[in-house]
Amino acid sequence: MSQAAVSVRCPGKTNLELKVGPRRSDWGDRHLLDTTYCAVGIYDTVTVALKSPGRGFSLDIRGDHLGDLGQGQADMGSNLAVQALFALAQAGGREPDASIRIDKRIPVGAGLAGGSADAAGVLLALNILWRLDWPHERLEEVAAGLGADVPFCLRGGILRGRDYGQTLEPAAPGPHLLGPSMAAGGSGHLLVGAYLDELGTADVYTAFDTMGGNPEDDNDLQRAACNLHPRSRQAIELALRAGAERAFVSGSGPSVVALLPDLATARRIRNTWAESCAVDRIIAADAPAWPELSYTVSSDPVEGGQDHAGRREEPMGVPGPGGPALGTGRTPSVAPLVNPIA
Ligand SMILES: C[C@@](CO)(OP(=O)(O)O)[C@H](O)COP(=O)(O)OP(=O)(O)OC[C@H]1O[C@@H](n2ccc(N)nc2=O)[C@H](O)[C@@H]1O
Ligand SMILES: Nc1ncnc2c1ncn2[C@@H]1O[C@H](COP(=O)(O)OP(=O)(O)O)[C@@H](O)[C@H]1O
């Protein structure tokens, strides 16, 4: 028996700018935000396949750096990928009988929206497997209920996020935000300094309420994140001293992003971060990035998303508006800096 599955390469995200306003009780006490999201080429791969009716769901997470996801007692039901399955099942009138496999590479609890990326991957995959064929705008309504970053993670690229981050519109960040080389149309090479430590997003926002942000920082959460995780401040200072065009905490942190003018600078930053032990992992990535879907038909598949010899994989484009039509092949590697919303 052949089984269809959809795999989505889901990029993580950083915030080239993050301005934080007051909390809003009508948004569950979340802060008002004005942010410039940028998807980065560190990918989780989410593979979803439908299961026979009544078989329920399964979740299989693999990777070397799973943070609190790797602990035995990690509650599968609270995983954002599973929450996305149930949210779309309810919105689309389907039964949540599906297997989800996540091959994680996005550091967990890092400010890189790994959970949001996985949730977006599940929504994109089920939109195809359940033949909903909803446009992004309709998927974004479900996504916004899962987390502020999930609507952006459906699209990728570089977009402005307002309200609590879920309202998206085109962004045209200048050299100040992208760094001159990326703004000049170069493919944005960047380094991410990641940590075994995690920072709770709620803790960082609470610390922000107390101490505010530094006016000279583009990320209002940076001061709070560095106060909670001083190694991040050290990594930023070392990267700037080594020639980074910009270096900043990614979202709620603790990971640090350094924008690079050239490969020589990349080498200098790698060396200084490694020698100083300012970070635990160094990940090179390009930006911006976009979700990449592939449709796999496996014969005699094995439950739980195991790889199988009889696989035939067809790359697809970014589904719906804002990207190539389905089946036109992978998204462009260097796409326009502004990812238009159609
Ligand atoms: C900070 C950002 C920047 O893009 O992402 P990360 O860097 O963590 O990935 C986002 O605002 C993360 O938004 P979201 O993904 O919805 O945060 P959650 O983890 O669901 O929220 C945890 C808690 O953080 C606080 N929170 C979250 C968002 C917001 N705009 N204001 C808040 O005050 C709330 O107390 C919330 O209960
Ligand atoms: N699929 C998932 N991937 C990563 N984290 C997840 C996932 N599902 C739930 N989580 C929870 O969300 C928390 C924040 O994860 P993540 O999105 O990686 O970080 P951040 O919100 O800092 O960008 C994690 O500590 C984890 O407990």
From TrEMBL:
Q: Where is the GHMP kinase C-terminal domain?
A: 218-277
Return the annotated region ranges for Disordered: 299-342
Question: Has UniProt tagged this entry with the keyword Transmembrane?
Answer: no
Q: Where does the GHMP kinase N-terminal domain lie?
A: 79-157
Q: Does the keyword Kinase apply?
A: yes
Q: What is its EC number?
A: 2.7.1.148
The record, for InterPro entries, names: GHMP_kinase_C_dom, GHMP_kinase_C_sf, GHMP_kinase_N_dom, IspE, Ribosomal_Su5_D2-typ_SF, Ribsml_uS5_D2-typ_fold_subgr
Q: In which pathway does it act?
A: Isoprenoid biosynthesis; isopentenyl diphosphate biosynthesis via DXP pathway; isopentenyl diphosphate from 1-deoxy-D-xylulose 5-phosphate: step 3/6
The UniProt entry, under Gene3D superfamilies, shows: 3.30.230.10, GHMP kinase, C-terminal domain
Q: Which Pfam family name is an example for this entry?
A: GHMP_kinases_C
Q: Where does ATP bind?
A: P107, V108, G109, A110, G111, L112, A113, G114, G115, S116, A117
Its function, per the record, reads: Catalyzes the phosphorylation of the position 2 hydroxy group of 4-diphosphocytidyl-2C-methyl-D-erythritol.
| Protein name per the record | 4-diphosphocytidyl-2-C-methyl-D-erythritol kinase
Gene behind the chain: ispE
